[in-house]
């Protein structure tokens, strides 16, 4: 483990097989304190070199050329069939460096896929294995974070680099910090004293409520970007030109009729654990499954929320279930954006 991982373990952190991090025995700084989650299930992949932007522009769904030195965005890398190998948040973190934050399970598939093409460019891939990624949210998150890290980004999707990494505003009161492993503990110490520690799944819950899906595990190469509503959240550029899988993605946008979309759902937890990515969704009157879970998280003590790619017909019916026996009903909740074609 790195220094910051050792520090979190000493602070009561428990590491799990799925890379999630939970805490026990932590003092509660009060209900008004900012929330802090260690995004231990996420990784950073850096693409560096004089050709890094040119290379990524031909590989990703987002417009890399449009990224400024103070902006970030969502994007994906697809195979030739237009199916996402991985999706991520991307930021220009240096003059010749772009950094992608993605789920740990898609890091290796993405490296392997990009590695087949990068040999022809003056660029290189580097996994920032020691990096520490944390999320802060809540009404006081900005004030606390500015005391520790200095200047903060003012608008959503912008970032401010500093000598310890970078701070990205991902929502009105939500921030991601991509920290250098060597100095991460210097940031964590003062933040832990001021913030309420939350489990990794709490940040997943916020992404679910924001309608931001993520390719995880066996879902790699299962979805085209539009199935995760990427056309609605700025994850696809339809004007940038060619990239791997672009023909399929563009054809679906302009000529196809998408019968499935990503929806936000809720179920009563009871004794059930949050369903794993890929779990099947069923509907009344349908013999086969009508969709699959993207990922899920505990909400309140009695509820679980999830994102699921399922048929529009099933979502409209309001009669969906997590099990083939139709014993665990799912309620469709609103998303903060309109689902478009």
From TrEMBL:
Substrate binds at residue 176. GO terms for biological process: iron-sulfur cluster assembly. InterPro entries: GcvT/YgfZ_C, YgfZ/GCV_T_CS, YgfZ/GcvT. It comes from the Bacteria. Coiled coil: none annotated. This is Folate-binding protein YgfZ. It comes from Exilibacterium tricleocarpae.
């Amino acid at each position: 483990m790195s220094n910051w991982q050792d520090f979190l373990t000493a602070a009561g952190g428990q590491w799990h097989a799925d890379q999630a991090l939970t805490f026990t025995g932590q003092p509660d700084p009060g209900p008004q304190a900012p929330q802090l989650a260690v995004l231990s299930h996420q990784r950073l992949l850096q693409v560096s070199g004089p050709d890094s932007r040119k290379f990524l522009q031909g590989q990703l769904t987002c417009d890399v050329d449009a990224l400024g030195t103070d902006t970030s965005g969502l994007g994906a890398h697809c195979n030739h069939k237009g199916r996402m190998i991985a999706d991520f948040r991307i930021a220009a973190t240096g003059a010749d460096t772009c950094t992608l934050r993605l789920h740990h399970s898609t890091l290796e598939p993405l490296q392997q896929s990009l590695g087949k093409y990068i040999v022809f460019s003056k660029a290189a891939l580097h996994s920032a294995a020691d990096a520490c990624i944390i999320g802060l949210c809540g009404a006081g998150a900005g004030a606390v974070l500015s005391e520790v890290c200095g200047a903060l980004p003012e608008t959503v999707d912008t970032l401010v680099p500093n000598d310890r990494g970078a701070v990205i505003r991902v929502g009105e009161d939500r921030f991601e910090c991509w920290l250098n492993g060597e100095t991460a503990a210097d940031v964590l110490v003062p933040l832990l004293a001021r913030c309420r520690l939350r489990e990794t799944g709490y940040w997943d819950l916020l992404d679910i409520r924001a309608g931001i899906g993520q390719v995880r595990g066996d879902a790699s190469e299962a979805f085209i970007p539009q199935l995760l509503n990427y056309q609605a959240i700025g994850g696809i550029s339809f004007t940038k030109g060619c990239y791997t899988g672009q023909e399929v993605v563009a054809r679906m946008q302009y000529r196809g009729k998408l019968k499935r979309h990503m929806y936000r759902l809720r179920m009563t937890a009871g004794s059930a654990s949050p369903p794993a990515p890929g779990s099947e969704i069923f509907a009344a009157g349908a013999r086969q499954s009508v969709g699959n879970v993207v990922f899920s998280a505990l909400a309140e003590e009695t509820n679980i929320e999830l994102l699921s790619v399922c048929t529009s017909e099933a979502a409209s019916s309001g009669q969906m279930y997590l099990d083939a026996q139709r014993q665990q009903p799912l309620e469709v909740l609103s998303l903060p954006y309109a689902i478009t074609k």
